[in-house]
Design brief:
The chain is mainly α. The chain contains 18 helices and no strands. Helix 1 runs antiparallel to helix 2.
Length: 474
């Protein structure tokens, strides 16, 4: 009975997936389907009190909300990817996020589906042949199959000789739709791991063996690829390295700040764009290297070395100086936005600064609370997951179109016209107000408004598709 219920839930949810999404866009259907799926899976597997499951489910619901609000192509992609994450926590609810994603992707593409269909077929045969009465009933039914089939074949042969012999039966017009069958099969495949997760596998066991809190190692680890320095010499090497790096980054910060007050120091002047984006790329590389260095020097027994204080102090200064470099890059990006307005690249710079700041904070926690490197990777994975799933909640197109005409010193209308439909009402308002900056683009703005397409079904409705007709009337 339990297996039958599981199969029914799987098939019903797959049919609902087809009804809500087949040949339709994403919108409110995503939020409805995800909320229902999470509720059913939570109750079915008893995941009510599992923290990591709710973290994964919350991120997915946020991405579903993003799609229901705006339905950008990239937010739809993030929504689909976050859906796969759920299966990883059904396989093993205490997995790390990277392991859960690997597990879910592996099982979502045919593996679970093929195993489940095969298992279901075996179960069906077992039910049919498990008792003599069932076997006799099956044998009795099979007595009629061959005669009926042969009779039907001869009926069609006689009908071919004399067409008047055929019975006239008016069947309703129906056209075979292979697309809906293929889409339903796709739904069955991606939903299958949520109900038939299978065994966790060795990857989950390996992940579970990696603790968050470091423990002192009393035995020498053999078979390393390269010789490891003793704790004393490694500590001294780390101190020297962080002193040199701190000196270098401090000089770099002082020089960059000095250029603001003394323009004569700009020997190689470059544009705002190159300055900000090159600075951002170098900063990301610098902070990535900083975290890797700290992960190396604060691994295993170095954390329990009784003379590690200087290393901790200089590593902390390195993190603080990188934090100041983040603030300086943000300041340059603010100047850039003030001059030329918001764009997706400039928004991504701010988000990148936020991510690197969180990464540095987690690195500090790793040092002072003696956490493992795997802890750092786990926590950063969750940060990335929630930042990506939350990114689509904001209507960036609308924000850019509102901000740039009102606050930017220079308005790039060509860039705004490449954005989505939510920029149309604001641009039309500027056109109606005869703003000289948009008058040359009148034909392009009107063409974009005429060609604007709204969802034709309730499943694909979004908050934007409801807001647009009210805000902009042709």
């Amino acid at each position: 009975m339990t297996k039958i219920r599981t199969y029914l839930l799987w098939i019903i949810l797959s049919a609902l997936h087809t009804y809500l999404f087949y040949e339709l866009g994403t919108g409110v259907n995503a939020l409805l389907f995800s909320a229902l799926t999470i509720a059913v899976v939570t109750l079915f597997h008893g995941l009510n009190n599992e923290k990591l499951w709710w973290l994964a489910a919350s991120g997915h619901l946020i991405s579903a909300l993003s799609v229901a609000l705006h339905s950008y192509p990239w937010s739809t992609a993030i929504y689909n990817l976050s859906f796969y994450t759920l299966a990883g926590y059904v396989v093993y609810v205490r997995s790390s996020l990277p392991i859960a994603i690997i597990n879910s992707l592996y099982r979502s593409f045919f593996y679970s589906f093929i195993i489940t269909v095969y298992s279901g077929f075996v179960d069906l045969l077992h039910v049919i042949f498990k008792s003599n009465s069932s076997f006799l009933a099956f044998r009795k039914t099979s007595l009629y199959i061959a005669p009926i089939t042969v009779t039907a074949v001869f009926y069609f042969l006689y009908g071919a000789v004399n067409p008047d012999f055929f019975l006239t039966i008016n069947f309703p017009d129906w056209e075979f739709d292979g697309g809906i069958i293929a889409y339903t099969l796709f739904g069955l495949i991606i939903i299958c791991p949520l109900f038939f997760p299978g065994n966790p596998g060795p990857l989950v066991a390996w992940d579970a063996s990696k603790p968050n809190l470091l423990k002192r190692q009393y035995e020498k680890v053999k078979g390393r690829w390269f010789p490891i320095l003793g704790l004393t010499y490694e500590n001294k090497q780390g101190v020297i390295m962080f002193i040199m790096l701190n000196t270098l980054i401090a000089a770099f910060l002082v020089f960059n700040i000095s250029q603001i007050f003394f323009p004569s120091l700009n020997y190689h002047p470059i544009g705002h764009s190159d300055q900000v984006h090159q600075g951002f790329e170098v900063l990301m590389l610098s902070i990535g290297a900083a975290i890797v260095l700290i992960m190396y020097y604060f691994r295993e027994n170095q954390n329990f070395y009784n003379k590690k204080d200087r290393l901790v102090k200089f590593a902390t200064i390195w993190i603080i100086l990188n934090g100041l470099l983040i603030l300086f890059t943000c300041y340059k990006n603010i100047l850039y936005v003030d001059a030329f307005g918001l764009t997706y690249k400039r928004i991504c710079v701010f988000i990148g600064m936020l991510l690197t700041s969180i990464g540095l904070y987690l690195t500090l926690i790793k040092i002072y609370r003696v956490k493992t490197n795997w802890y750092l990777l786990r926590q950063n994975a969750w940060v990335l997951y929630f930042v990506f799933t939350s990114f689509g909640v904001v209507d960036w197109d609308r924000l850019i179109t509102w901000y740039n005409p009102n606050y930017a010193q220079f308005l790039d209308v060509n860039y705004i016209l490449t954005l989505g439909n939510t920029q149309i009402p604001y641009m039309s308002e500027l056109l109606d107000a005869k703003d000289p900056r948009v008058i040359p683009y009148k034909a392009a703005i009107e063409s974009k408004s005429v060609n604007m397409q709204l969802p034709t079904s309730w499943q694909a409705e979004t908050a934007d598709s409801k807001w647009m007709p009210r805000k902009y009337k042709k």
